[in-house]
Amino acid sequence: MSLQDFKQKAKQAIMQLRKETAKKAIIVHHDDADGLCSAAITKKALEREGINTETFCLEKVYTEVIADLHSRKDIIIFYVDIGSSHADLISKLNSGKNLTIILDHHDPKPSKDPLVLDLNLEHFGFKGETDFSGAACCYLFAKELNEKNIDLGYLAIVGSSEIPDGFKSVNEMILHEALEKGVIRKKGKSFDIPRFGINVGVLFSKLQILGAVGYYENGPEIGIKACLEGIDKTIEEKVNILEGKRKEVNRKLLGRLYREGLKETEHIQWFDAGDMYQGMGTKVIGQFCSFLSYQTRLIKPDKYILGFVNVPQDIPKWGRLKEKFVKVSMRVPKIMQSLIDDGKILGAVDLLDKASEPFGMADGHQYAANVILPVDKKLKLLENAEQTLRQARAKSPP
After folding, report:
1. CB atoms within 10 A of CB 313
2. Domain spanning 3-229 has what CATH number?
3. Could you tell me the CA-to-CA distances from 336 to 121, 236, 348, 392 in Å, in that order?
4. Greatest pairwise CA separation for the chain in angstroms
Protein backbone atom coordinates (compact mmCIF):
# COMPACT_ATOMS: atom_id res chain seq x y z
CA MET A 1 0.00 0.00 0.00
CA SER A 2 1.16 3.54 -0.66
CA LEU A 3 0.16 7.19 -0.90
CA GLN A 4 -0.94 6.49 -4.45
CA ASP A 5 -3.43 3.93 -3.12
CA PHE A 6 -4.75 6.54 -0.70
CA LYS A 7 -5.21 9.01 -3.55
CA GLN A 8 -7.15 6.43 -5.53
CA LYS A 9 -9.46 5.73 -2.57
CA ALA A 10 -9.84 9.46 -1.96
CA LYS A 11 -10.87 9.98 -5.60
CA GLN A 12 -13.52 7.27 -5.23
CA ALA A 13 -14.83 8.91 -2.06
CA ILE A 14 -14.93 12.29 -3.82
CA MET A 15 -16.94 10.77 -6.69
CA GLN A 16 -19.50 9.58 -4.13
CA LEU A 17 -19.43 12.98 -2.45
CA ARG A 18 -20.16 14.77 -5.73
CA LYS A 19 -23.11 12.45 -6.42
CA GLU A 20 -24.73 13.27 -3.07
CA THR A 21 -27.97 15.25 -3.22
CA ALA A 22 -27.42 16.41 0.38
CA LYS A 23 -25.62 19.75 0.43
CA LYS A 24 -24.93 19.98 4.16
CA ALA A 25 -22.01 18.36 5.95
CA ILE A 26 -21.49 17.94 9.68
CA ILE A 27 -17.80 17.90 10.55
CA VAL A 28 -17.20 15.99 13.78
CA HIS A 29 -13.74 16.81 15.12
CA HIS A 30 -11.45 16.44 18.10
CA ASP A 31 -10.65 19.33 20.46
CA ASP A 32 -6.85 19.49 20.30
CA ALA A 33 -4.79 21.57 17.85
CA ASP A 34 -4.73 18.74 15.32
CA GLY A 35 -8.50 18.38 15.56
CA LEU A 36 -9.09 22.11 15.08
CA CYS A 37 -6.74 22.23 12.08
CA SER A 38 -8.46 19.16 10.65
CA ALA A 39 -11.88 20.79 11.02
CA ALA A 40 -10.67 24.07 9.50
CA ILE A 41 -9.16 22.34 6.44
CA THR A 42 -12.28 20.26 5.85
CA LYS A 43 -14.67 23.17 6.42
CA LYS A 44 -12.84 25.45 3.98
CA ALA A 45 -12.44 22.73 1.34
CA LEU A 46 -16.10 21.71 1.45
CA GLU A 47 -17.39 25.27 1.41
CA ARG A 48 -15.30 25.92 -1.70
CA GLU A 49 -17.36 23.13 -3.29
CA GLY A 50 -20.63 24.81 -2.34
CA ILE A 51 -21.38 22.47 0.57
CA ASN A 52 -22.77 24.05 3.74
CA THR A 53 -20.90 22.94 6.84
CA GLU A 54 -21.52 22.69 10.55
CA THR A 55 -18.67 21.85 12.92
CA PHE A 56 -19.28 19.69 15.98
CA CYS A 57 -16.43 19.26 18.45
CA LEU A 58 -16.56 15.96 20.30
CA GLU A 59 -13.93 14.92 22.81
CA LYS A 60 -14.86 11.26 22.62
CA VAL A 61 -17.12 9.02 20.56
CA TYR A 62 -20.12 8.59 22.87
CA THR A 63 -22.54 5.95 21.60
CA GLU A 64 -25.71 7.94 22.34
CA VAL A 65 -24.33 11.06 20.63
CA ILE A 66 -23.22 9.16 17.53
CA ALA A 67 -26.53 7.25 17.38
CA ASP A 68 -28.39 10.57 17.39
CA LEU A 69 -26.10 12.05 14.74
CA HIS A 70 -26.57 9.10 12.38
CA SER A 71 -30.34 9.09 12.86
CA ARG A 72 -30.51 12.35 10.90
CA LYS A 73 -31.29 12.37 7.17
CA ASP A 74 -29.94 14.21 4.16
CA ILE A 75 -26.53 15.03 5.64
CA ILE A 76 -22.96 14.09 4.87
CA ILE A 77 -20.88 13.28 7.93
CA PHE A 78 -17.13 13.82 8.21
CA TYR A 79 -15.10 12.57 11.17
CA VAL A 80 -11.73 14.34 11.30
CA ASP A 81 -8.94 13.51 13.76
CA ILE A 82 -11.50 11.25 15.42
CA GLY A 83 -13.57 8.25 14.39
CA SER A 84 -11.22 5.57 13.05
CA SER A 85 -10.93 3.82 16.41
CA HIS A 86 -14.73 3.45 16.41
CA ALA A 87 -15.35 2.89 12.70
CA ASP A 88 -17.03 -0.40 13.59
CA LEU A 89 -19.53 1.35 15.88
CA ILE A 90 -20.06 4.21 13.39
CA SER A 91 -20.67 1.65 10.65
CA LYS A 92 -23.25 -0.17 12.78
CA LEU A 93 -25.10 3.01 13.76
CA ASN A 94 -25.01 4.49 10.26
CA SER A 95 -26.33 1.27 8.67
CA GLY A 96 -26.28 2.59 5.11
CA LYS A 97 -28.05 5.90 5.82
CA ASN A 98 -25.52 8.72 5.28
CA LEU A 99 -22.28 9.05 3.35
CA THR A 100 -19.67 9.17 6.11
CA ILE A 101 -15.99 9.94 5.49
CA ILE A 102 -13.35 9.46 8.18
CA LEU A 103 -10.03 11.36 7.94
CA ASP A 104 -7.99 10.36 10.96
CA HIS A 105 -4.66 9.04 12.25
CA HIS A 106 -5.71 7.06 15.33
CA ASP A 107 -5.48 3.27 15.31
CA PRO A 108 -8.44 2.11 13.16
CA LYS A 109 -11.16 -0.51 13.52
CA PRO A 110 -12.82 -2.06 10.44
CA SER A 111 -16.00 -0.63 8.89
CA LYS A 112 -18.58 -2.91 7.25
CA ASP A 113 -20.94 -0.21 5.97
CA PRO A 114 -20.04 0.67 2.33
CA LEU A 115 -21.15 4.25 3.03
CA VAL A 116 -18.62 4.63 5.88
CA LEU A 117 -15.30 5.34 4.16
CA ASP A 118 -12.25 5.40 6.43
CA LEU A 119 -9.35 7.07 4.61
CA ASN A 120 -6.98 6.84 7.57
CA LEU A 121 -3.45 6.53 6.15
CA GLU A 122 -2.79 3.64 8.51
CA HIS A 123 -4.82 1.60 6.02
CA PHE A 124 -2.19 2.48 3.42
CA GLY A 125 0.98 1.50 5.27
CA PHE A 126 1.72 4.62 7.35
CA LYS A 127 1.88 5.10 11.15
CA GLY A 128 -0.30 7.68 12.85
CA GLU A 129 2.16 7.97 15.74
CA THR A 130 5.03 9.16 13.55
CA ASP A 131 4.20 9.65 9.85
CA PHE A 132 1.11 11.83 9.64
CA SER A 133 -1.50 13.71 11.67
CA GLY A 134 -5.25 13.99 11.34
CA ALA A 135 -4.73 17.38 9.70
CA ALA A 136 -2.27 15.87 7.22
CA CYS A 137 -4.87 13.28 6.23
CA CYS A 138 -7.51 16.01 5.83
CA TYR A 139 -5.13 18.13 3.76
CA LEU A 140 -4.32 15.29 1.35
CA PHE A 141 -8.05 14.65 0.89
CA ALA A 142 -8.72 18.37 0.39
CA LYS A 143 -5.99 18.55 -2.25
CA GLU A 144 -7.58 15.64 -4.14
CA LEU A 145 -10.90 17.47 -3.89
CA ASN A 146 -9.44 20.61 -5.42
CA GLU A 147 -5.81 21.47 -6.12
CA LYS A 148 -6.33 25.07 -4.95
CA ASN A 149 -6.62 23.72 -1.41
CA ILE A 150 -2.84 23.54 -1.45
CA ASP A 151 -3.03 26.93 0.29
CA LEU A 152 -4.25 25.08 3.42
CA GLY A 153 -0.97 23.20 3.78
CA TYR A 154 0.09 25.37 6.72
CA LEU A 155 -2.70 23.81 8.79
CA ALA A 156 -1.38 20.32 8.11
CA ILE A 157 2.00 21.50 9.43
CA VAL A 158 0.43 23.03 12.55
CA GLY A 159 -1.60 19.89 13.26
CA SER A 160 1.42 17.64 12.73
CA SER A 161 3.37 19.61 15.33
CA GLU A 162 1.81 17.29 17.94
CA ILE A 163 4.07 14.46 16.79
CA PRO A 164 7.15 14.63 19.04
CA ASP A 165 9.73 13.15 16.67
CA GLY A 166 9.47 15.88 14.05
CA PHE A 167 8.33 15.87 10.43
CA LYS A 168 8.81 12.47 8.81
CA SER A 169 7.33 10.52 5.91
CA VAL A 170 4.00 12.07 4.82
CA ASN A 171 4.46 15.07 7.12
CA GLU A 172 7.90 15.76 5.66
CA MET A 173 6.51 15.64 2.13
CA ILE A 174 3.79 18.15 3.04
CA LEU A 175 6.37 20.36 4.77
CA HIS A 176 8.57 20.50 1.66
CA GLU A 177 5.56 21.26 -0.52
CA ALA A 178 4.40 24.06 1.80
CA LEU A 179 7.87 25.60 1.81
CA GLU A 180 8.12 25.38 -1.97
CA LYS A 181 4.74 27.06 -2.45
CA GLY A 182 5.46 29.74 0.15
CA VAL A 183 2.56 28.63 2.33
CA ILE A 184 5.01 28.52 5.23
CA ARG A 185 8.48 30.02 5.56
CA LYS A 186 11.53 28.71 7.38
CA LYS A 187 12.77 30.99 10.14
CA GLY A 188 15.80 29.69 12.00
CA LYS A 189 14.94 26.22 13.27
CA SER A 190 11.18 26.84 13.11
CA PHE A 191 8.56 27.92 10.58
CA ASP A 192 6.32 30.97 10.13
CA ILE A 193 2.93 31.33 8.44
CA PRO A 194 3.37 34.42 6.20
CA ARG A 195 -0.36 35.18 5.79
CA PHE A 196 -0.74 35.62 9.56
CA GLY A 197 2.79 36.56 10.61
CA ILE A 198 2.73 33.88 13.30
CA ASN A 199 5.04 31.00 14.15
CA VAL A 200 3.72 27.47 13.52
CA GLY A 201 4.61 26.38 17.06
CA VAL A 202 2.95 29.43 18.60
CA LEU A 203 -0.30 28.83 16.72
CA PHE A 204 -0.20 25.15 17.70
CA SER A 205 0.16 26.04 21.39
CA LYS A 206 -2.70 28.53 21.30
CA LEU A 207 -4.99 26.03 19.57
CA GLN A 208 -4.16 23.41 22.20
CA ILE A 209 -5.45 25.81 24.82
CA LEU A 210 -8.52 27.04 22.93
CA GLY A 211 -9.82 23.59 22.08
CA ALA A 212 -9.08 21.68 25.26
CA VAL A 213 -9.22 24.23 28.07
CA GLY A 214 -11.92 26.26 26.32
CA TYR A 215 -14.07 23.31 25.27
CA TYR A 216 -17.07 24.56 27.28
CA GLU A 217 -16.45 28.23 26.43
CA ASN A 218 -16.80 28.15 22.64
CA GLY A 219 -13.06 27.50 22.37
CA PRO A 220 -13.20 25.06 19.44
CA GLU A 221 -15.17 27.49 17.25
CA ILE A 222 -12.75 30.30 18.16
CA GLY A 223 -9.87 27.96 17.35
CA ILE A 224 -11.21 27.14 13.89
CA LYS A 225 -11.60 30.88 13.24
CA ALA A 226 -7.97 31.37 14.33
CA CYS A 227 -6.88 28.61 11.94
CA LEU A 228 -8.45 30.38 8.97
CA GLU A 229 -8.12 34.05 9.92
CA GLY A 230 -5.23 34.25 12.40
CA ILE A 231 -4.98 35.42 16.00
CA ASP A 232 -6.53 38.79 16.80
CA LYS A 233 -6.42 40.68 20.11
CA THR A 234 -9.68 39.19 21.36
CA ILE A 235 -8.49 35.63 20.72
CA GLU A 236 -5.13 36.39 22.31
CA GLU A 237 -6.84 37.61 25.48
CA LYS A 238 -9.07 34.51 25.55
CA VAL A 239 -6.04 32.24 25.26
CA ASN A 240 -4.25 34.01 28.11
CA ILE A 241 -7.25 33.68 30.45
CA LEU A 242 -7.72 30.00 29.66
CA GLU A 243 -4.04 29.19 30.02
CA GLY A 244 -3.96 30.92 33.38
CA LYS A 245 -6.77 28.64 34.60
CA ARG A 246 -5.04 25.50 33.38
CA LYS A 247 -1.66 26.45 34.82
CA GLU A 248 -3.19 27.02 38.23
CA VAL A 249 -4.80 23.57 38.29
CA ASN A 250 -1.65 21.93 36.86
CA ARG A 251 0.40 23.56 39.62
CA LYS A 252 -1.96 22.30 42.33
CA LEU A 253 -2.11 18.79 40.92
CA LEU A 254 1.63 18.53 40.42
CA GLY A 255 2.20 19.76 43.97
CA ARG A 256 -0.19 17.13 45.28
CA LEU A 257 1.58 14.36 43.37
CA TYR A 258 5.00 15.46 44.66
CA ARG A 259 3.64 15.38 48.21
CA GLU A 260 1.66 12.15 47.96
CA GLY A 261 3.27 10.34 45.03
CA LEU A 262 1.43 8.40 42.36
CA LYS A 263 -0.42 5.24 43.29
CA GLU A 264 1.11 2.10 41.85
CA THR A 265 0.31 -1.40 40.71
CA GLU A 266 2.87 -3.82 39.29
CA HIS A 267 2.98 -2.18 35.84
CA ILE A 268 1.03 1.09 36.22
CA GLN A 269 1.48 4.38 38.08
CA TRP A 270 -1.73 6.36 38.38
CA PHE A 271 -3.59 9.30 39.92
CA ASP A 272 -7.14 10.62 40.04
CA ALA A 273 -7.72 14.33 39.32
CA GLY A 274 -11.44 14.08 40.10
CA ASP A 275 -13.12 17.46 39.49
CA MET A 276 -9.94 19.54 39.65
CA TYR A 277 -10.27 20.56 35.97
CA GLN A 278 -13.97 21.40 36.26
CA GLY A 279 -15.09 23.72 33.46
CA MET A 280 -12.36 22.53 31.09
CA GLY A 281 -12.41 19.82 28.45
CA THR A 282 -11.13 16.40 29.47
CA LYS A 283 -8.31 16.60 26.91
CA VAL A 284 -6.39 18.52 29.58
CA ILE A 285 -5.79 15.31 31.54
CA GLY A 286 -3.97 13.80 28.58
CA GLN A 287 -1.91 16.96 28.21
CA PHE A 288 -1.01 16.77 31.90
CA CYS A 289 -0.05 13.08 31.59
CA SER A 290 2.23 13.98 28.66
CA PHE A 291 3.87 16.67 30.80
CA LEU A 292 4.13 14.21 33.68
CA SER A 293 6.00 11.69 31.52
CA TYR A 294 9.00 14.07 31.53
CA GLN A 295 9.02 14.58 35.32
CA THR A 296 11.81 12.08 35.95
CA ARG A 297 11.98 12.84 39.70
CA LEU A 298 8.34 11.91 40.09
CA ILE A 299 7.54 9.02 37.76
CA LYS A 300 8.93 5.53 37.27
CA PRO A 301 10.37 5.22 33.74
CA ASP A 302 9.27 1.57 33.38
CA LYS A 303 5.56 1.90 34.25
CA TYR A 304 2.60 3.11 32.21
CA ILE A 305 1.27 6.52 33.36
CA LEU A 306 -2.50 6.67 33.86
CA GLY A 307 -4.70 9.58 34.94
CA PHE A 308 -8.42 9.72 35.76
CA VAL A 309 -10.64 12.79 35.48
CA ASN A 310 -14.40 13.19 35.86
CA VAL A 311 -16.34 13.85 32.63
CA PRO A 312 -18.97 16.62 32.63
CA GLN A 313 -22.29 15.28 31.35
CA ASP A 314 -23.01 18.25 29.08
CA ILE A 315 -21.89 18.06 25.45
CA PRO A 316 -21.72 21.52 23.80
CA LYS A 317 -24.08 21.87 20.80
CA TRP A 318 -25.75 18.54 21.62
CA GLY A 319 -27.18 18.04 25.10
CA ARG A 320 -26.65 16.00 28.26
CA LEU A 321 -25.31 12.46 28.56
CA LYS A 322 -27.54 10.04 30.43
CA GLU A 323 -24.68 8.36 32.30
CA LYS A 324 -21.79 9.63 34.44
CA PHE A 325 -18.32 8.85 33.10
CA VAL A 326 -14.65 9.25 33.90
CA LYS A 327 -11.93 9.67 31.32
CA VAL A 328 -8.73 7.69 31.54
CA SER A 329 -5.60 8.95 29.75
CA MET A 330 -2.51 6.81 29.38
CA ARG A 331 1.00 7.81 28.38
CA VAL A 332 4.08 5.66 27.86
CA PRO A 333 7.43 6.90 29.24
CA LYS A 334 10.13 7.28 26.59
CA ILE A 335 12.19 4.30 27.67
CA MET A 336 9.20 1.96 27.13
CA GLN A 337 8.37 3.14 23.61
CA SER A 338 11.11 1.13 21.90
CA LEU A 339 9.82 -1.98 23.71
CA ILE A 340 6.39 -1.35 22.18
CA ASP A 341 7.95 -0.88 18.74
CA ASP A 342 9.77 -4.20 19.13
CA GLY A 343 6.57 -5.98 20.16
CA LYS A 344 7.88 -6.80 23.63
CA ILE A 345 5.13 -5.00 25.57
CA LEU A 346 1.62 -3.82 24.78
CA GLY A 347 1.04 -0.36 23.37
CA ALA A 348 -1.21 2.07 25.24
CA VAL A 349 -4.25 1.81 22.97
CA ASP A 350 -4.05 -2.00 22.80
CA LEU A 351 -3.78 -2.20 26.58
CA LEU A 352 -6.72 0.13 27.25
CA ASP A 353 -8.79 -1.53 24.56
CA LYS A 354 -8.40 -4.95 26.17
CA ALA A 355 -8.66 -3.70 29.77
CA SER A 356 -11.85 -1.70 29.18
CA GLU A 357 -13.75 -4.40 27.33
CA PRO A 358 -16.77 -4.57 27.48
CA PHE A 359 -17.52 -1.33 29.37
CA GLY A 360 -15.37 1.22 27.53
CA MET A 361 -14.18 2.22 24.06
CA ALA A 362 -10.50 3.08 23.84
CA ASP A 363 -8.84 5.08 21.10
CA GLY A 364 -5.51 6.71 20.46
CA HIS A 365 -2.03 5.49 19.64
CA GLN A 366 0.54 3.06 21.00
CA TYR A 367 2.31 5.73 23.10
CA ALA A 368 -0.77 7.77 24.07
CA ALA A 369 -4.37 6.60 24.42
CA ASN A 370 -7.56 7.18 26.36
CA VAL A 371 -10.88 5.62 27.21
CA ILE A 372 -14.19 6.73 28.73
CA LEU A 373 -15.57 4.54 31.54
CA PRO A 374 -18.64 4.45 33.77
CA VAL A 375 -17.63 6.01 37.10
CA ASP A 376 -17.79 2.71 38.96
CA LYS A 377 -15.31 0.91 36.67
CA LYS A 378 -12.06 2.67 37.62
CA LEU A 379 -10.65 -0.06 39.85
CA LYS A 380 -11.93 -2.73 37.46
CA LEU A 381 -9.94 -1.11 34.65
CA LEU A 382 -6.74 -1.23 36.73
CA GLU A 383 -7.41 -4.84 37.67
CA ASN A 384 -8.08 -5.81 34.04
CA ALA A 385 -5.00 -3.94 32.82
CA GLU A 386 -2.74 -5.82 35.23
CA GLN A 387 -4.29 -9.13 34.24
CA THR A 388 -3.88 -8.28 30.54
CA LEU A 389 -0.22 -7.38 31.04
CA ARG A 390 0.49 -10.54 33.01
CA GLN A 391 -1.11 -12.63 30.27
CA ALA A 392 0.84 -10.81 27.58
CA ARG A 393 4.08 -11.35 29.47
CA ALA A 394 3.33 -15.07 29.89
CA LYS A 395 2.80 -15.42 26.13
CA SER A 396 5.94 -13.51 25.13
CA PRO A 397 9.07 -15.54 24.32
CA PRO A 398 11.76 -15.69 27.06
Report:
1. 12
2. 3.90.1640.30
3. 25, 38, 11, 15
4. 61
